[in-house]
Amino acid sequence: LNGHLLLHESLWAVAPAADGLSPKQPVAFSTAADHPLVLPTSGHALRMLIDDAAARTGAEMTISVQTNSMQVQKQLVLAGHGWTILPGVGVADDVAKGVLSAAPLCEPDVTRAIVVAAPRTTRIPPAMEAVARELIRQVLAAVADGRWPIDESQPVTPPLAPLDAGALGLSSPGPRAF
Question: Rounded to an integer, what is the distance from CA 31 to the centroid of its chain?
Answer without folding.
Answer: 20
